Structure formats: C-alpha cells, structure tokens
Known about the structure:
Layout: H1 4-25, E1 39-40, E2 50-52, H2 54-62, H3 66-76, E3 84-90, E4 94-99, H4 101-114, E5 128-132, H5 144-162, E6 166-173, H6 178-196, H7 211-224, H8 233-258, E7 265-268, H9 269-274, H10 277-287, E8 291-294, E9 297-300, H11 302-312, H12 317-321, E10 328-331, H13 339-353, E11 358-364, H14 368-380, H15 385-388, E12 389-394, E13 397-401, E14 404-405, H16 418-424, H17 427-434, E15 442-445, H18 446-449, H19 457-477, H20 496-506, H21 508-518, H22 522-541, H23 549-572
Parallel strand pairs: 5-6, 5-11, 6-7, 11-12, 13-15
Antiparallel strand pairs: 1-2, 2-4, 3-4, 8-9, 9-10, 13-14
Helix pairs in contact: 1-3, 2-3, 5-17, 6-7, 6-8, 10-13, 11-14, 19-22, 19-23, 20-22, 20-23, 21-22, 22-23
Amino acid sequence: MIHMIQNAKDQVLALTNTAYQTAAAQGKLPGDVQVRANVEIPKDPANGDYTTTFALAAAKAMKRSPREIAAVLAESMDLAGSYFDSVEIAGAGFLNFRLGRKWYADTLSAVESEGAAYGRSDTLKGRKIMVEFVSANPTGPMHMGNARGGVLGDTLASVLQAAGADVWREFYVNDAGNQIEKFASSLEARYLQIILGEEAVPFPEDGYHGDDIKELARAFYEQYGEQYKDADVKSRHEALAKFGLERNIPKMKSDLQRYKIEYDQWFFESSLHDSGYVADTVDKLTALGWTYEKEGALWLATSRILEETYRKAGKSEKDIAKLDLKDDVLRRANGFYTYFAADIAYHRNKFEVRGFDKVINIWGADHHGHVARLKGAMDALGLDGTNRLDIVLMQLVKLLRDGEVVRMSKRTGKAISLSDLLDEVPVDAARWFFNAKPDTQMDFDLGLAVREDSENPIYYVEYAHARICSLLRTLEGEGYAVPAMAEVDISLLSGETEQALIKQIALFCEALRLAARDYDPSHINRYLVELAGCFHRFYTACRIKGEERSVLQARLKLADAARSVLKNGLALLGVDAPEKM
C-alpha cells in the first residue's frame, strides 16, 4: 500500500528534523530539543501543499521567535531528491512546502502498480471483525430503516476489508421469543377468520396488521385447509410460525441479494435456545454474582455493572447519575428467557466461541438505550464489551417525492418496503443515497435518485467513469493506448487542473482510512464526488484528443488513473462503474 499523502507528511517531518539537526550542529539553534510538530494540508493552495508547525512548537523550548527558527530551518533544509520543490516561511512561523514532479509521478505510478488494490492498506491486518447489520424481524417485509442499515453495514464491511481486516458479515434472525408468538397469534387470527368469518374471531390488539399477514394466512389455508382449525393452540402456533418464517426469510434473502448484499452467515436466535446456550450464559452471570431474584423473575444487576464500569473508567458521579440506570429481567417468572438474555448469549458467542476481536452492530437510533446495557453485560462476563463491542446508531430516513414526504407505495398502496423501493429506484442509486453519514437524519429524494444530470451525485460520478472509458475507446481507435508511467513526461502535467486531479487521486487512501476509522463509509461518497468534479474540470481545461503525442499520452495516463480510482471507490460502495451511459 502506497499512501502518498502520508508519505509526503512523513517527509516534511523528516526534512524539518534533518534541517534542525544540521542547524543545531552548526550552532545556529539550541540542540537536544524534542519537538512535537504537526503537518497539515493548507485549505488555501496559496499557502503551499503542506505546512508544518515545527517552528511554533519549538519556540518556547528554544527561547527564539517562531519566525527566527523557521528562517534558520529553511536555510538549512536540503530538498534534493525529495517530493518538494520549495519551502517558504509564512505567518507566525509556519513552513510551507510545495510539491515537485517526483510526488506527482510517484502518485500516478502507485495507481498503475496497485491497480484494483490502490487505496487499500494493512492497517487492520490480523484483526477479526464481525459486522452485524439489518437483522430485521422475520415477521414482515423489510422497511426503509433496513434499506439504510443494509448499505451502511455492507459498505462498512467492505471498507474494513480494504483496511486489511478479516471481516465477517452476519444477519441475526430473531426467530424466537415474543415477536414470533405475536406473529403466530396474528396469523392464527387471520387463518381462523377465513374459516369462521372476521366477526367471529377478534384480532389481537398488539398483533401485526399488515396485508402480508393476511396473504400468509390465505396461503396457509390454501395448503392445509381446516386441518388446524381444531388443533391445540401450541401446535397451531408452531405450524403457522414455521410456515410464515419459511416464506419470509427466503424473501428477505432474495430482497437483500437484489440489493447486492450477501452474508457469511444467517445466525438463528432459536439455535441459542435449543443448544442451551442462553441458559448457560444466564447461569454464568449468576455464578459471577451479577443476578438476583425478585417476584419470581431473575434479574441482571445492570445498574451495578454500569456503575462499576463507569467508575473504573474514571467517570464522575454526575456522569453516572445521567445514565438513568435500571436493571433488566433475564428470565421471567414463567421460566421464559427475555430477548435481552438471548442477545447477551449471542454476543458472548461472538466473542467467546467464535473469537472476534471486534464486533460492530448497525442499529437504529431507537436502540440507543440498549447500547450501554449490552456493553455492560459483556464487561460482566469478562469479555471487555466497553472496547470490543461498537454500535453504529443510524438516524431515520424520510422519503420525498416532489418535496413531499412519501409513506405509501404508489404501486401497492402499502407502506413502502425495500422491495417497493427497488422497483422504483435503481439498486445502485439506492445504495449510493443510503450510504449517507449514519448519525444524521436523511432525506431520500426519489426524483433526484433517478435524474440523469449533474444534480444527481451517483449519475455525476458514474458519468465521469463512462466519459473516460469513451475517451479511451476513441483514442484506441486512433492508435493510442494508455502508456506506462515510464513513457510519460510528468513535467507536461503542470497545469492547475492537472495537478489538482493528481492530488485528489492521492486522497483516496486518506478517504478510505477515515471511513474505516470513523465507521462512516460516506467518506467514500464525498471523495468520489470531488474526484469526479476534479476530472470534469481537468477535461474541460485540458484538451487530449488532437494534442501532440507527448501531451496526449501524459493526459491520457492521468485520465486513466482517475478512471481506475473511480472504479475502486464505486466497487467499495457496491456500485457499478459503467463504461457507457
């Protein structure tokens, strides 16, 4: 992995430190001063390409003014063979460096040599990470929150893989517990209504009212007739739940495959109960002294766990008071384990049985209160949930059409599901738009998502890629192939838009690093829009076709490098890079 931005920053510090050692040896500056300086990219290119605060950071220890130190450093600096052509003193004592040909050449060489691997790193090499996402209840169609969580989880997994991690994608199927009982009761009511009439069978107040329940009950009736009309409730519920899940889960899988999402595993909650792992986990918490009985139920001392965790972390009593702590039931008085007990067992399985170093869950913002409790439970089991379990909370989605909020599908008249959305909006557009910054509420403009102009960011980026491919085809027909870097005269790429495009190409590695660090793959979206903009500006300002051969080849090489990086970025998002549009 060649990270040209970091390489340049490292070289600024190395050059500055060498200049300091030279100046100190000559008695021009005090020796043996330890300096911790930053290197940044100035927002205004007039201030150079990189700047360091070395002189400002050293001023107090050296008892000299920053500008005086900067002047000595600049005078003592040898830029020969480096990435930089010049160094200047600015402001209170900043040292501003300007890039030279070598850096631009090495950047394009890195794209050439690394190809599809350009931008990737080994930062997380050796780390085994699970990303669990969507995990929608299998009791009905997937909705907009699942659409957003699906893309965020899938693209985050891709970003972490690009950073060198061993990544596992998982869907947790809640096929046990209260929601399945509610599902069975809802199907039962609709099934019996078909046989006895709607007036004769009341529908559960907390039941699932969707048309999908009616459709499943009708399909069950068509297969089994009145066979289950007089069956005992337990047998009827088991049959109905099994029938419904056997149809809903494959539909979820096919919808997600259509959305370009494939999982390494669909993990079933029922397996934790059937194997006794939930009971074993609760027993372990009891043996560790973290449970107590009250009113026939078994409780987890969540408040005590979190108080101890926060105190160990050095939090104040004021911080602890803000937690609004309360304990959680693990096993009800009727002997049934709660969803929280199963969730604790599931996460214990991730760490203790399957050995993941880090577990990342993509959850809706409504799960905010569950985060500290689950982390605390892992801490109580000695699994360091505080540091090993990370939760990405995503905000709500609003669908808009012509500026109005949309809640119902025009086609079906029902609440819009993931399947409905993908009937209306191309999959790539849906993936692009849902890959927005997770912690902000997003407006999904259905009209914008299908527009074919520069206002639509996915079209703008894909068009840049297609435009370059069209250029390559045209020039190939005229006998021009993309040259190797050894054949390119880098001095011919000295224009403002040419150098700006190369700098943007180099920033891909940084965008990927930030996306992995922040668990925010939308860094890639923003980067690609900037890259497409840089290419379009370069293409407008710098003619390629018809130029003399050396200029044509240099600019063709630059255009092809931009194409390669656009393709790499779109691939991370699970979005196609079209060659024609």
